[in-house]
Specification:
- With about 375 residues, the protein is of the alpha/beta class.
- The chain has 3 domains: about 1-150, no CATH class; about 155-225, no CATH class; about 230-355, Roll (CBS-domain), CATH 3.10.580.
- It is built from 12 helices and 9 strands.
- The protein has helices at about 20-70, 95-115, 135-150, 160-170, 175-200, 200-225, 250-260, 280-290, 295-300, 310-320, 340-355, 365-370, and strands at about 5-10, 15-20, 75-80, 80-85, 265, 275-280, 305, 325-330, 335-340.
- The strands form 3 sheets. Strands 1-2-3-4 form a 4-stranded mixed beta sheet.
- Helix 1 (about 20-70) packs across helix 3 (about 135-150), helix 2 (about 95-115) runs antiparallel to helix 4 and helix 7 (about 250-260) crosses helix 8.
- It binds zinc ion.
């Protein structure tokens, strides 16, 4: 995740702090300074460190439960809305996802109950987080209860969203459950944003974050479900215009005009892909270096290849995580068999979605698919 600092490692999991978490801490600091002056602000520095510890403890509730199910947990990022432990995969077994999601808030319940029973914390209506007159133990207990309530909001990426998906998933299946949970998350985001308009502007910020997270969760799951067990050959373009490295850019322009392709694989004498030239590359090279520039010097040689029988999900990983513009699909002897781009995957996805027996995509694209049911 961008915009975050690595601050160390606990039990093999990297701890990262996102800029939004730092802003949240600064906001608490400023609020207590405004209401109680410098002393209150400094005592909240200590308070912040304890809050920080409770959030980490919450995340390790998720992390240790995930590990019990054999899921690797490379890092955890602390955000304004709590922490996000990155799990190598989300178990699609609803029972496992439920336990992993619920373990985080449960840690805060244990801390809050411990503070109340052992340290005699009082949690009443007068407990304000930015009030320096309330004892540290009371405020800490209140923070842990707040963390429980906040994380139980039924929206991704909050634990409540995952618990909701797990409960729905037991009956409806993972993909449909994600779709409904994401829709509820988007509704919750709108409600939060609306409340934020009249109260705390921080809520608007959280609402935007929740909305984006709900949308991307649904999108990722739909893509992953679609690509599972599908060979790359199912989503590749096979009627392709190709270029040769010794051709001039002038010839590439001719090819560009004859087709509607946006990406041209460059293929050597043996028929093997050696690079990629995009529409933008061709136009830029023509303008800057003239028509006789060789294709080889204008192309990008960064074109990942996959065998035709490999899984489409691998191609998606290359396109999304490695941000490749295209993936070349090759025969066992290394010759070009086809090309996969985000567009070709998108087209396949639309066709899948148009089939009556297929799953729906997220709420953003369901107009046509829903009306056919
Ligand atoms: Zn959590």
């Amino acid at each position: 995740m961008g915009w975050s600092l690595n601050i160390g490692r606990i039990a093999g999991t990297e701890i990262r702090v996102h800029i939004t978490f730092l802003l949240f801490l600064i906001w608490i600091f400023a609020a207590s300074y405004a209401s109680g002056g410098a002393d209150a602000a400094w005592s909240s520095v200590l308070f912040m460190l304890l809050v920080f510890t409770c959030v980490i403890a919450h995340e390790f509730g998720h992390i240790f439960t995930a590990r019990a199910f054999g899921v690797q947990t490379p890092d955890v990022t602390l955000l304004a809305i709590g922490g996000v432990a990155r799990l190598e995969r989300i178990p699609e077994d609803p029972g496992q996802e439920f336990l992993i999601a619920v373990a985080g808030p449960l840690v805060n319940v244990v801390i809050a109950v411990g503070l109340i029973v052992i340290a005699g914390a009082h949690v009443g209506s007068g407990t304000a987080l930015d009030n320096g007159n309330v004892s540290l133990v009371d405020r800490l207990a209140a923070v842990n209860l707040f963390l429980v309530l906040f994380n139980m909001i039924p929206a991704f990426p909050m634990d409540g969203g995952r618990i909701l998906r797990a409960l729905l998933g037991a009956r409806l299946g993972f993909v449909r459950a994600t779709e409904i949970a994401a829709l509820i998350g988007q509704v919750v985001a709108f409600a939060l944003g609306f409340i934020g308009l009249f109260s705390n502007p921080m809520l608007i910020f959280i609402a935007i974050f929740v909305y984006l997270a709900a949308t991307s969760e649904a999108h990722m799951v739909a893509l992953r479900a679609m690509s599972r067990g599908v060979p790359v050959s199912a989503a590749m373009m096979t009627r392709l215009a190709t270029l040769r490295p010794d051709e001039q850019i002038e010839q590439a322009v001719q090819t560009l005009l004859q087709t509607s392709q946006g990406e041209f694989p460059v293929v050597n004498d043996a028929g093997k892909p050696v690079g990629l030239l995009t529409r933008a590359d061709i136009i830029r090279t023509m303008k800057d270096f003239g028509p006789s520039t060789p294709v080889a010097s204008a192309m990008s040689s960064d074109l990942p290849t996959l065998g035709a029988r490999r899984c489409l999900s691998e191609a998606l990983t290359l396109l999304q995580e490695k941000t490749a513009q295209a993936v070349a699909v090759v025969e066992p002897d290394g010759r070009l068999a086809g090309l996969i781009t985000s567009e070709s995957v998108g087209e396949m996805l639309m066709l899948q979605n148009a089939r009556p027996d297929s799953f729906h995509l997220g709420p953003w694209s369901r107009t046509r698919a829903s009306s056919s049911h």
